[in-house]
Amino acid sequence: MSDSKVLLTGATGFLGRHIIASLTERNAKVVALVRRRSEWNRQDWTAPYPTVDLIEGGITGSEGWTGDRRLLGTTGIIHTAAIVRHSRRSPEDIYETNVEGTLRMVRLAAKLGARLVFVSTAGTVACFRSPAQRADEDADYVDRVVRDWPYYDSKVKAERAARALATQLGVQLTIIRPPILLGPGDHRFRSTSYVLKFLRKKFPFVIEGGMSFIDVRDAAPAIVAALDHPAARPVYHLDGENVTVPEFFELCRQVSGVAAPARVMPYGTAHALAKTVESAAHLLGKHSPLPDPVVIEMGSHYWGIKSRYSGPELGYQPRPGRQTLADTVAWLRANHPALQGKGV
Ligand SMILES: NC(=O)c1ccc[n+]([C@@H]2O[C@H](COP(=O)([O-])OP(=O)(O)OC[C@H]3O[C@@H](n4cnc5c(N)ncnc54)[C@H](OP(=O)(O)O)[C@@H]3O)[C@@H](O)[C@H]2O)c1
Question: Domain segments of the chain: what residues?
């Protein structure tokens, strides 16, 4: 990719960090959109990338940065910036960033004559009531299932609107749908927060349901490959480990030695409890110690995803989930302040 110049949004995030590593390995010129240069400079993981060109700006608010001359010659945009928050409270910024921000990137791609790879989520199509179901790249949206969960709802709306606008403006758009990303290097401790909470024994109970996860180190090169593929498809899924929630915590136990939460609580009880505690905490201006009711609702579903194309066309090869979890645990133990010297 030595002839490529790639604009990356969300460069300071978990996935962005690994995409920078993949792009750099392929000798692409990287222009990173960062909201605060100081935040980039503060992070020690950015030190090995002195050649990354930084443009300060956001995908919401002023679009002045889109006229920066350093964007001239951009061949591709990888758009990962988003707000990932699972709550129904005050969702306006989620829609503004995830939907309107994505449409701005489609318009920018049209202006620059660049291809666009938009990282969405498996949850736009893969959210079921049964553990046996799997969504491939041709699956329909599950818009009615996810409409009360602003993050997933915003991603469905973003995919639909981006596809329509890209068609209208003649932009070559590829949408990538990964499930939960785990692995080392989650310097915000957000994507790996379930594993972190598990290690800190902060799960008072588990519920029956499912989860799907992959390794960020496998996702990043596949996303870069989609940008580089001469005839990339409109959609690629990145599939990996589809497990039940109790199976996930059992895997966590095996790789960490920390006991799994013993109590499996019925969904109705867990949801009612989470709702009551969240409302009370909200009135007091505090955070609930329990998962948000949206997280309980999500957790009671199954997120089975499969792919027909990402292996043969993007060279995507997911490593075993156990390895991802072991490496996630090791990284969190080495890097999270609450785990230092605690022997957990
Ligand atoms: N992590 C997962 O499990 C997962 C699973 C499926 C799909 N995805 C998708 O993958 C993408 C990346 O996720 P992630 O885990 O890397 O998220 P993350 O670590 O939370 O990073 C989010 C990134 O978006 C940037 N951002 C947020 N609002 C912005 C705005 N208005 N303008 C410019 N930048 C903005 C953040 O910049 P600041 O540093 O300035 O805040 C940060 O760089 C997202 O689109 C997400 O929906 C993630």
Answer: 5-183+214-240+302-318
